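Per your request, structure below.
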């Protein structure tokens, strides 16, 4: 059975998909980009600022079902330019302090709304 997650604490989906879905004990969080959920406006900051907003959004989705970043087991980071890897990585490390999930990072030609970074995640779901 699938449970769709939707929260106003994270940006609305910009297409026909869910913010996240719970299935078989896991939370699958859709790729998050640097949109401020309060205004639904795109953050036009540098890669560090965008990464920070992306991870805040990802965290908000998890928190909406009683989870958090410590439950994340895998992320995929999409970067418009791998030259931004070190900047993204430093900001990413601010959020994943206790646990370090498995991760893949890939360079892509273009991302939604022409942002520089997008991150998706898979987390363990332990209902309370």
């Amino acid at each position: 059975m699938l449970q769709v997650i939707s929260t106003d604490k994270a940006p609305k989906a910009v297409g026909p998909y869910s913010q996240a879905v719970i299935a078989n004990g896991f939370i699958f969080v859709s790729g998050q980009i640097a949109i401020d959920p309060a205004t639904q406006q795109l953050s036009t900051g540098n890669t560090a600022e965008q990464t920070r907003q992306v991870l805040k959004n990802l965290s908000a989705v998890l928190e909406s079902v009683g989870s958090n970043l410590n439950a994340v087991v895998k992320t995929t980071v999409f970067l418009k330019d791998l030259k931004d890897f070190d900047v993204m990585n430093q900001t990413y490390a601010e959020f994943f302090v206790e646990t370090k999930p498995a991760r893949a990072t890939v360079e892509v030609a273009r991302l939604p709304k022409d942002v520089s970074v997008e991150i998706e995640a898979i987390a363990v779901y332990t209902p309370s």
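The mean pLDDT is 95.

Regards,
D.
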